[in-house]
Design brief:
single chain, 174 residues, mainly alpha, two-stranded antiparallel ribbon
Amino acid sequence: MVRREITGYYTGVHSNAQGIIDRWISVEEKVETRIKSFRDPTEPLNPELLYTGIFALMTCVLTRSRGLPTRILLPPAALISAFAYFLPGTASRVGAYGRELEDRYVPRFGEIRRTSIAHSGIAWERVGYSTGMGHTAGMGVTGMAGTGTVSRCGTRGHTVPVSTVYGYVYGCLR
């Protein structure tokens, strides 16, 4: 009688533990599948990932005798920039996933980030126009801005009236 109760208790504990292990393995497989989906099949991982790691470690070594903000901020920035340089396709996929998570969990922050990126791009264009280098990137005003002619700045090649582009910027700044 006691043996049956102990065997039943053991079977229950074993099945509960097996259920937990199965759920953990399922989560692990989902994470593995998601991480493997980031890899761009056209990019070889072997030398590029090694170069990225070496660049990040080299930055850690070079900044070890610098101030605390430099030691904290520069190595992760170097890692991200090396990752984007050596593995651009994979970095693009990781960035898209980050934007997807941002839109799902903190949409207001994503909206603010996209607006600030658009504003800084337009500010750089205005600096380029004021220094006379605005047409070097293949973008710019295709006519005189004061006359309300057509502009291609900040619109990804689409032509819209200048008042639409600059009206949007000034409307957001108010």
